[in-house]
Protein: Pyrimidine-nucleoside phosphorylase
Amino acid sequence: MRMVEIIAAKRDGRALTTAEIEWVVQGYAAGEIPDYQMAALAMAIVLRGMDDRETADLTMAIARSGDMLDLHDVAPLTVDKHSTGGVGDKTTLVLAPMVAAVGLPVAKMSGRGLGFSGGTIDKLESIPGFRANLSAEEFRRAVREPGLVVAAQSGDLAPADKKLYALRDVTATVESIPLIAASVMSKKLAAGADCIVLDVKYGRGAFMHTLDDARQLARTMVAIGRHAGRKVTAVISSMQQPLGFAIGNALEVREAVAALCGSGPSDLVELCLVLGSELVCMAGLRDDPDTARALLVEALSSGAAWEKFRAMVANQDGDVTTLDHPDRLPNAPVQVDLAAPRAGFVTAIDGQTLGFVVNALGGGRVRKEDTIDHSVGLVLRAKVGARVAAGDPLVTIHAARQSDVDAVAERLANAYTIHDTPPPSLPLVEEIIR
Ligand code: URA
Structure:
């Protein structure tokens, strides 16, 4: 087979065969297919799409490009969660300990930032000492005790996705239903969890801008998971504005700590309760989402979820004193408020722009080998629906230097829309596909 012919076939809209997909994925993982050819194929897939059979083939080929974990010797049942990516999405940091605290072992491999959206591993690495790269043995031990592990995708797990994910991040090839579905589900299948909840986001701060696209992505992923014998539910949630108030790695860890200690933003906590209830029901701990929710609320209010989070961070060599004193997490030296240009109601916040602004401040990557500044980011002071007077702070910019603030201020101001009348209220959870 020749890669150039496969690229041309997809460019011209032909469905790739199972054998072609397998050959490409193996060749790319083995380093025989160069990044530039894989990027060209990814772009052809973005533009031409893939049918269900191709998407399932791509998922299985990526999953089988490395080890397929079986965790049943360390825990009879494990759960996992994945988000399709959004701005300010620190859900894993709150949800995973909550669910682990009610007795469901969480075995989670997470990603780094992708495009305008942050990544859980980058966030956790703002905790000094935190080790996201675990050996397979360490991963398995952590599933047993403390019953919660959030690790970077190991080199042995879906290695083809690891390479492709980083390549897509810097080649504008993220926004594609088949590529996202295959990326997410290959990792989930390879990581071995029995019950998986997917947080499929839509809106300006997500890769899927419309509800229809989010629904299609959700159905595709649920079907792939079920076909592979896993329990999978997808929650379609809104990213019409960032989740919570903080965007940026250390800032989001602070917000997650607040949520685990009982003072988190209501949208973040609500989403975690909805996602967590699905996991509790799938795992058979409770029969219906209401009683599942009560169990999780108790885990949060009793401090059990917070203790689980501390135990996970300690187990992965993170400095837990920075969690007890979050002001010791990386702090940006320059903090400047951006003022509302006029009075009115905030009717829209363009999350995608905010995500790119955080990248421009140094909080995300432009090239895949870039290092990031964990301290920088944004803290929203007014969210959609808020009434502001002219001059009120809309957002606080946390930056390494004043010139960075100056470089992003205009773009940031344009991300806010202010009108005389209040906007309709936005549902956080649109639907659940079970
Ligand atoms: N999350 C992933 O793991 N992969 C994607 O492609 C997008 C979000």
Summary: The longest helix spans residues 211-227. Residues 105 and 147 are 5 Å apart (CA to CA). The chain has three domains: 3-49, 79-324, 331-419.
